[in-house]
Amino acid sequence: MDQQAEQPAPILTQPAPAPVADDGGISGPFDLERCVTRALNANPSMTGIRAQLQGAQFGENSALGKFGPALKGTYGYTYYDRKYTSSNEHSDWVGSLNLTQPVFTGFNLLAGWQKSKLNKESTEAQLTNVELTLVESVQSNFLSLLKARMDVKSAEDSVARLESQLKVTTAFYDVGLRPKAEVLDAEVDLATAKQELLRARNNVSTQEAQLNTLLNIPIEAEVEYVGELKYIPFDLSLRDCLTRAYANRPDLLIGQKSVDMAQKDVTMAESSFYPQVDATWDYVNRGDDPGLNGGGAYSERASEYWTAGVGASMDIFQWGSDYYNSRQFAQVVKQMEAELENTRLNAGFEVKRSLLNIQEAADRISVAQKSVVAAEEAYRMAVARYQAQVGTNTDVLNAQERLTFAEAQLSQALADYGTAVSALYVAMGEKNLGLKEIK
């Protein structure tokens, strides 16, 4: 299915959110977009990933700092049990400074810095991934809340219809036109409908509590969630969606960064194949007392001096340890490449599945709307026939049950459609906070 048929599709349109007050920012109505924005700012999962990103930035700075010189200072005292100079002193106080500048490390420092930079970029992609997951969760729960409210309205209408029918049936029974069994049937159906209404109202409260949790709002807080399902056409093709997904999905970027970081690990492992070159500068001051003053044991030689030089070192033979270590990391690169390809395949499947779910839900909406219209007319006719004494109470109750079922199917199709649209945007790696447009 490369091109989607144009079908009516639900969208959420709500009044503009009220200004945030000093009560924790929960005053005024919360539409879908405001809910998502609040979650992205306040949900604890966002705080955690932002801290991880800040840590990755510090890690990059740390790796960059290794390119610069390192300065080390020492200060100490040594006592000798015999004279080691012409002096009678047995004490030796020494202070020194050592400055070391890496010159060449077999590309180890460069690869380490590049890996830390890639890690920061990967963490940024993880931040986007967490945002998308949170957006989908909030939108899904918001749509479920709207569906639950539609179910409450349907249940209330059902109770009202059954109460009206019970009154009519009772009136007919009182004048001897209907048997007692019809009154009992009407009472049983009314009691069942009231139970369904109670369950629907409880579901609304549950969804509101879930939204409060996602938005980091106290569970007992009364929040005004507003919104209703509307319709707009949907005309994105599979090819368009796949193109956007392959360009934007953060998990694909994370996979690519993982491959690149594994390659940097190979470079760092192979650094032992090269000589390590360092430039050094040393300053030494010796004395007979804590102040490092000369004299005494140092009266005949210099007590203060400095040296500078360049040195190279290289591990000549390690019995294959360094070679096999580098080969091990090379296999990790292949593993990361395979996982990236698998992620890409799954991304395409998720996009395709979401498109199919959208098409299915759109078709169900169209059918359900017709079903509701037909069920309403059937119920009206059944009531009229019953009141005219040419129909039965069973016909009325069956028509009422079919109408309630048709309304439930419509609300479910609307919620499923909105959920599928939300899932499609997440599958494409895009954030559509209010599901306001599909283009």
Structural features, described:
Helix content is 61%, strand content 14%. It is α+β, with helices and mostly antiparallel strands and 439 residues long. It has one domain: Outer membrane efflux proteins (OEP) (Up-down Bundle). A 4-stranded antiparallel sheet has the order 3-4-7-8, with no helix packed on it. It has a two-stranded antiparallel ribbon with strand order 1-6. A two-stranded parallel ribbon has the order 2-5. Helix 5 (238-248) packs across helix 7.
Give a quick set of tags describing it.
single chain, 8 helices, Outer membrane efflux proteins (OEP), elongated, 4-stranded antiparallel β-sheet, 439 residues, two-stranded antiparallel sheet, alpha+beta, disordered N terminus
Short summary:
It is built from eight helices and eight strands. It is α+β, with helices and mostly antiparallel strands and 439 residues long. It has one domain: Outer membrane efflux proteins (OEP) (Up-down Bundle), CATH 1.20.1600.
Note the topology.
Elements: E1 8-12, E2 29-30, H1 32-42, H2 44-65, E3 70-79, E4 91-104, H3 108-174, H4 180-214, E5 224-225, E6 229-233, H5 238-248, H6 250-270, E7 276-287, E8 304-313, H7 321-387, H8 393-427
Strand tally: 8
Tell the overall outline: elongated
Main beta sheet strand tally, sense and closure = 4 strands, antiparallel
Oligomer: single chain
Arrangement of strands in the largest sheet: 3-4-7-8
Mean pLDDT across every amino acid position: 86
- Give me the CATH fold name: Outer membrane efflux proteins (OEP)
Number of domains: 1
Task: Please report which band the strand proportion falls in: under 5%, 5-15%, 15-25%, 25-35%, 35-45% or over 45%.
Answer: 5-15%
CATH class bucket: Mainly Alpha
Give the second-level CATH assignment, the architecture: Up-down Bundle
Indicate the low-confidence ranges by residue numbers. 1-22
Question: What is the end-to-end distance?
Answer: 18 Å
CATH homologous superfamily, by name?
A: Outer membrane efflux proteins (OEP)
Number of helices: 8
Structural class: alpha+beta
Helix and strand element order: EEHHEEHHEEHHEEHH
Q: Percent of residues in helical segments?
A: 55-70%
